[in-house]
Design goal:
Blueprint lengths: L3 H14 L4 E9 L4 E8 L6 H6 L16 H10 L4 E7 L3 E9 L11 H11 L4 E8 L2 E6 H8 L7 H18 L4
Parallel strand pairs: 1-5
Antiparallel strand pairs: 1-2, 2-4, 3-4, 5-6
Helix pairs in contact: 1-3, 1-4, 4-6
Length: 182
Amino acid sequence: MLEISLHILDIVENSTRAGADTVSIDIVEDTARDILSVKIRDNGSGMSEDVLRKVIDPFFTTKTVRSVGLGLPMLAQAAERTEGKVIIESKGGEGTRVVADFKLSHVDRQPLGDISGTLVTLIAGNKDVDFIYRHEHNGQAYILDTREIKKEIEDIPINHVDVLSFIRNHIIEGLKEIGAEA
């Protein structure tokens, strides 16, 4: 994966496959501390301690369609390449938390990428999942909460093309307002 947004897509897809109905995605860009932090929390089925110990191994997967699991190992490698780290916490029946920290200015840090496209893809494919996206850039924050959008649109599905277009534009404008990569 060449962009951090694609790592986010992969991890959140794991969350939805694990039965999560709420996923929080927090991104913090702090130039003073020279850090880019990505935190993803879900309320899915979580992982056993045994699976949690193996989850960074690229030759381990719980999926039956392939014999390797590259998502989390690739994220860990991308973070470590920038003097960062990945922390994964999970409890069976309670959900999972993944934190990836990158050195913001590191030459090998992957770009954030098309975060608005990633979020729209996740919302379009998971209309029954609530997503809370918070992006902080040097102390200024943008928040998108699909629970609030669903209240406003009432009986229109959140994955309706016009709603998705609105969401994409809202994210792009919100990130521009706080000075973040859009």
